[in-house]
Design brief:
44% of the residues lie in helices and 0% in strands. With 126 residues, the protein is mainly α. Helix 1 packs antiparallel against helix 2. The protein is elongated.
Length: 126
């Protein structure tokens, strides 16, 4: 857990417990949650069980929280390019570039939900 932290808030995580770590009887699982100071540390319910049982739920969650936003963002960019490439010439009112810009901005907003390791931005701290 070193900085910069990966942004895993919107994605499910699936981890395997190595064979031999769990013993017969009571076991204690400790989860370390590290968050950036500006964000609250909220953790969804943790499911513990056999990998074969948890895998379908993990895949479903991944589809809705990662894959669907990626597809929608890609479609937004495609529509923006279509608007810019086809309809800007015939735009007497000047609305189509704004419409395309809105699609591009929406795609950028969507990437915030599935982009795990965004590029580092320079700090303005002096």
């Amino acid at each position: 857990m070193e900085r910069p932290l990966s942004r895993n808030a919107n994605r499910p995580l699936l981890s395997n417990v190595p064979t031999g770590m769990l013993q017969a009887g009571r076991n204690v699982v400790r989860i370390r949650l590290v968050v950036e100071p500006a964000f609250s540390g909220i953790l969804d319910p943790v499911l513990i069980g056999p990998h074969a049982v948890l895998q379908p739920s993990f895949e479903t969650q991944s589809t809705f929280t990662v894959l669907v936003p990626q597809i929608v963002a890609t479609l937004c960019l495609a529509v923006a390019l279509l608007i810019l490439g086809v309809f800007v010439r015939d735009d007497d009112e000047g609305a189509n570039p704004w419409f395309a810009a809105a699609f591009i901005l929406w795609a950028v907003v969507l990437t915030q939900g599935f982009l795990r390791d965004p590029p580092a931005m320079p700090s303005r701290r002096g």
